Amino acid sequence: MPEDDATPADAPPPPTPHDAAGADRTGRAAPSGRIWGLRAREGRWVRRVVPVVATPVLLFFAPHVYNNLAFLTTMVVYVVLAEGVNLLYGFTGYLPFGYVGFFGAGAYGASLAVVDWHVTGLVALVIGGLTAAIIGLVVSPLLRLSGAYFALATLAASQVLYYVVANEPWTYGESGMSLPEVFGATETYVIALVIMALALAVTVAVRDSRFGLSLRAIRSDPVSAAMAGIDVVRARTAAWFISAALAGLAGAIWAIMTAAFYAENPFDLTISVYAIVFALFGGVRTVLGPVIGTVVLYSLYQYIGISNPQYFELVYGLLIVGLALFLPGGLGSLVTGSAARWRRRRTRPVTGALDGAAPGGGTP
Amino acid sequence: MQLFEYAIVNGVLFGLFYGFIGIGLNLLFGVMRLVNLAHGDLVVFGGYLGYSLAVDAHINSLWAIPLSIPAALVFGFLVYHATVPRLRRAVDTETASLIVFFGISQVLEALMTMIYGANQVTLPSPGGPVSLFGQDYPASVVISAALSVPALALLYLYLYRTRIGLATRAVMADEDEAVASGVRVRRVAVWAFMIGVAFATTAGTLTAFMLGGINPTTGSGLTITAFTVIIIGSLGNPLGTVVGGLLVGLASSLSLTQAYATEWTAVVPYVLLLVVVLVRPSGLFGATVRRA
Amino acid sequence: MAHRPYRITTGLAALVLALGGLATLSAGSADAASAHAKAGTITVGTLYASTGAYATSSMPEYAGLQFWAKQVDSHGGMYVAPLRRKEKVKIVAYNDQSDPATATSLYDQLISQNHVNVLVADFGSVLTAPAITIAKDQKQLLFDVTGSGTSFFTSGSNPYVVLTSLPVSAVWPKPVAKLLIQLKTKRVAILYCQNDFDQAQATAIQGFLKAAGITPVYFQGVPTTQSDYSTLVQSIKATNPDAVLELGYPNNDIAFLNELKATGTHFKFVLTPFLGQLPSLFTQDVGAPAVNYTYTYAVPPTLVINHVNIGLGLTAFVRQFAPGKPSTVNFLDVAGYNAGLAVQAAFAHATSMSQLGIRAGITAVNGKLQTLEGTFKVDNTGEQLGELLPVAQAVPHGKGFALKIVYPATPAQVKMVNAKAKYPAPTK
User: Domain for residue B140, yes or no?
Assistant: First the structure.
């Protein structure tokens, strides 16, 4: 996407002080090569293990701070979804507008398994994840598309799936299902946390593996990646399946929490939109970004909902507009000051050059 | 057979309207790669304007069309400057715009609820049934469809008969090349944005007629319909949007005549979209097939 | 690369901060909870939807409940049997924006943070569903106002849910079927929206009719989002029906009637469910001439019940609820008020302040309570069995229309019948 060259007003040079700060920070950290007194090699393991373990542990104690398990479980479910969006969009560049389809499929599979086949809770979770993965397989031809075409085609697919579940008597989705109690409220929360830990572990693994590297290569330029020997289709499909299964697990635990399956709820498009907004707001291509984005925005959502319900939508909408416009790199960029820069450098090596050329290179 | 004919005519009438709804959205996407999730809400806002005129000012709601255009242009100008320059600098304009316009859509929905309440509002029918090919159609639908045609024609004239229209099409085809050949992208973008918003609100004045009524949540469904229409007819191709609208209108209308298909009416546009993009990944009128 | 570990520490710091924000959340709501503990009031937790799909119905219902609380407090509170004294009532309400996920966490908020004494659900099955689950899970008594989804009451006996208004969807259309049989209609067309509420009615009517040897000539579902009824009306017309039942939500009913109006289509018998519940909305959106002769379920305030043993009778309610503007009162206002009365009755006869003790209060008055909605009677799943609805028809009345009861559902309602069904409907 080229910048708006001809119009300096719209495209000022990138803020150089910002860049300098980033470099400075890099400079400070780099020479020592040590973090918390650890060598680089150990530091790498810290980076891998800490987010995966510390996040669920911290959230495990959240009920002592704010004892509303329905809210907390839903929030953790959103964290899983946001990480799923992160895997798919952050690492492959595919924005899944219809991501809710997998969530709904997971909720549906798990509900049916509990109500009809009387399986145990954990089996129901696995069935939920599998259902979503199977749906992922069915709709995988959509990966041939790109950009907005892909985003909206997945949306269409999720809606088709919704109507199939909601319209047909044989799906049991028509009149809704009431689930018996599978797990207690605390148990449900802990299981949601375990699913979240799994999502975080997968994200870390993808980030640090050759697989993740190839995904990023594909994202920046699929043609060169293919020429470099990466199996583009396979790598993409793998990320797609992982992401689908995660959403399926999230949907399954959500269905178990709400203990009722009404097709319009788990297939509600706003779930997709929220997961995407949370992930982008926190910052994709990082591990903790989606977590922070979800925790902050969903807590705010709850806070506004409780304290000032009258202007709820208005305040929330303005907040999202403001944050997206003034913190485009997500909250991550606020925290580190260099996330956006890092991201640009990683994924779009040419951008820096373009940005630099912008003020001078305009055509009158 | 009579029913079949009725469904065809009805489908065409609705198809024209869908094209009208989609075209403003396509302009924004084609020129600036903006995913305007607030499009449907802008449409509904136009509808409420018409409602206000009819109910509070006691004049024909169709006066909302000339009255809403300047207001929409000003509104578009303001929103453009508040959001677009920043969005265009974002790493990924498409997704950044998605979030921003999602927020704007929430704000618009909230404002409409505050001003007009959450209840469905309807407009009095502009007249008795209109006879077309021997069958009666609601006047509201016929008039709305009839007004969609000159609107679409005007946009065609803008794009194909004016200098700025030529520049707009150049940007839609390839922004780099357009810049290289001296097109002033920003001017094109401002106008495209303003016109896109104006088309949304103008189409909106007809929605209360076409949909039987509007409420503040009508917008999100319209946004999805509009996206479906423009994807089928290819992003960035205004003519394709008209064809996409007609296809969606016809398919939906025909499905309502078939036993067992009525419950699937809402799915028809989505299935159509999936079939089209799987056969032609860039829509029916996409210039080039995108790389896989 | 080397600066990345830095970002994890700061990232986790941000997470801790966010959790701190959560603490603020609970601090804010702790006020409400402690207020309850100190003042010794009875707190009733509820949700409403100021925006979104259910706002039209949710807001009047909430207004009715608020009116009840105000009434009770103006009489010095309501009697609480286990405490042997009157207590003031406080309503704690949150806005769920018609979103079930939000509703879930807000119901939990009411129980876990506000420690409300009893819970009153938001309007309709979709927003009630999460409350049913939480009520069961947390053993919290829930007064379900209008969430009549069939799946709520099928899973064995559940002491924690009480449906206060309307029988379940599968029961209440019985009078409609009986009326159709009485009118000797042979060709019945049923168009329903695909949601729990309408679908259950459609299937029930189809069953009743089939038992009488009438097979509907048209039986089709459409999505609840359907707004274009033109082709559908033509399809129905092609079947040449004696009676047309359009079972939808308010927006569907309005769109359908407007379509008939715009195309000048005339059917001998048309029924829409929500005309009876929201007559003023139909006057505004469809207009009286086009509404005339349409059938609907007669609900209060059309159904006037003044013989009560708790709260206000219907006429008094209408007068006090909206002084000078009786036409603005709709069924959902009554339903909200009626839910309050059920709460009041439960406390007046509760055996203890525990949730089951309060439920025992309901058992004590079950079948004996006469409210402005009729006899209050629930079974052991909490399902409402009383309050059967007669059928009414809109007839011209001055510039507008009036709803006249044409067919009773129960023997007690026979004397309420105040008009004979005008069938076939005169052309307008």
Answer: yes
